[in-house]
Write a structure and sequence with these properties.
This protein has helices at residues 12-26, 39-45, 51-59, 82-93, 106-109, 116-119, 159-174, 190-203, 216-225, 237-251, 289-301, 306-321, 335-345, and strands at 2-8, 31-34, 62-67, 97-103, 123-129, 137-143, 150-154, 179-184, 210-215, 232-235, 260-262, 268-270. Helix 1 crosses helix 11 and helix 9 runs parallel beside helix 10. The strands form two sheets. It has a ten-stranded mixed beta sheet with strand order 2-1-3-12-11-4-5-10-8-9, with helices on both faces. A two-stranded antiparallel sheet has the order 6-7. The chain is α/β, with parallel strands linked by helices and 347 residues long. It is globular and about 60 Å long. Helices cover 42% and strands 19% of the residues. The protein folds into two domains: 1-104 and 255-347, Isopropylmalate Dehydrogenase; 112-251, Isopropylmalate Dehydrogenase. It has 13 helices and twelve strands. Bound molecules: nicotinamide-adenine-dinucleotide, 3-isopropylmalic acid (IPM) and manganese (II) ion.
């Protein structure tokens, strides 16, 4: 099976290298091809997602990506941005559901900025819609029609875009604790009212799933006060982006959360939820756990190797339990040492 590696920018190459070290042990037969994306691709080719990268990803069995972006490419007036490459890749791969599992392991509970008793036992899955909503809606742009410069984006969802991601979320809920929280802003947004209506209709076919609706603003608070309430959360692209960085704080670090982006087929895109972390790039201190855990999700969802996936996840829990922590979690280990500890903990 072939994996396209897209290290990208900032700490992306550091964390992808760490994940490959672990993959080489648990799945030594995988083949890799490395390609450019993001700022690195802009520098080399002018485009954030060169055709060659797109084709390689479309013909691979899975894609493992580090992160894109950084100050070098962040001039608001730049004609092209690294992040456009990531969005174009998600769209090209048709990965409309972004799975972001959030689990607080016992060893990390004391590292959370919240009191341990609030975060112990937290275990939920966010299913973030990934190829629609305000990230992709048109029209978007700028005009001066009113005599003043304005900028606009469009939050738009079709019924089928909502239905397919909610259907997937229902199936995940059926394999878990049968509880689904659909998060929207239906008190204000028309697209959220269609989201809510469609969610009700889809869930009617999943009678064992208990559905609740929650407005996104109060959900943001409940994540800090009652995170254990959640089992599966399904939500729109932008809301899911924001809520999952917030959820990362429950675990103590943005560096530990993985993600899997999937569509209707087996192929998927795997990436940590964090970004290129320009403030620590090149220092060898990036936490590789989010990317290594993303590689585990890749083994499970795209490559048909659930045992290898579980072996990695167990090794991560053990290594963290033994105190393999970097500065983000109050420890002193660097990227390579944390990866070594995970390799040591593999059975
Ligand atoms: P960020 O996630 O890069 O960093 C936020 C904070 O978390 C920083 O202090 C950083 O040092 C820390 N952090 C992140 N990952 C870490 C890790 N693995 N180990 C230790 N600490 C870690 O968010 P930002 O600073 O808002 O964004 C920087 C750039 O990354 C932007 O250009 C943004 O667009 C991009 N970005 C890319 C992705 C992606 O490629 N999927 C995701 C988010 C942000
Ligand atoms: C993420 C990132 C991306 C997003 C950016 C870099 C486009 O924040 O993967 O969470 O908003 O989806
Ligand atoms: Mn994000």
């Amino acid at each position: 099976m072939r994996v396209a590696l897209l290290p990208g920018d900032g700490i992306g190459p550091e964390v992808v290298e760490a994940a490959v070290r672990v993959l080489e042990v648990v799945a030594p037969d995988l083949e890799y091809e490395t390609h450019l994306v993001g700022g690195a691709a802009i520098d080399a080719t002018g485009a954030p997602l060169p055709d060659q990268t797109r084709e390689a990803c479309l013909s691979a069995d899975a894609v493992l990506l580090g992160a894109v972006g950084g100050p070098k490419w962040s001039d608001p007036r730049a004609p092209v941005r690294p992040e456009q490459g990531l969005l174009a890749l998600r769209a090209a791969l048709g990965v409309y559901a972004n799975l972001r599992p959030v689990r607080v392991i016992e060893a990390l509970a004391a590292r959370s900025p919240l009191r341990p008793e609030r975060v112990l036992g937290v275990d939920f899955l966010v299913v973030r819609e990934l190829t629609g909503g305000i990230y992709f809606g048109s029209p978007r742009g700028r005009d001066e029609d009113t005599g003043e410069l304005r900028a606009f984006d469009t939050m738009v969802y079709s019924r089928s875009e909502i239905a397919r991601v909610v259907e997937l979320a229902c199936r995940f809920a059926e394999g878990r604790r049968h509880h689904l929280t659909s998060v929207d802003k239906a008190n204000v947004l028309e697209s959220s009212r269609l989201w809510r209506e469609t969610t009700e209709a889809v869930c009617a076919h999943h009678p064992s799933v208990h559905l609740e609706h929650q407005l996104v603003d109060s959900c943001a608070m409940r994540l800090l006060t009652h995170a254990r309430d959640f089992d599966v959360i399904v939500t729109a692209n932008l809301f899911g982006d924001i809520l999952t960085d917030e959820a990362a704080a429950l675990t103590g670090s943005l560096g530990v959360l993985p993600s899997a982006s999937i569509g209707d087929g087996p192929r998927g895109l795997y990436e940590p939820i964090h970004g290129s972390a320009p403030d620590i790039a090149g220092k060898g201190v990036a936490n590789p756990v989010g990317t290594i855990a993303s590689a585990a999700l890749m083994l499970r969802h795209s490559l048909g190797r659930p045992e290898a996936a579980s072996a990695i996840e167990l090794a991560i829990d053990r290594a963290l339990g033994r105190g393999a922590l970097g500065p983000d979690l109050g420890g002193e280990l660097g990227t390579a040492a944390i990866t070594d500890a995970i390799l040591d903990a593999l059975e």
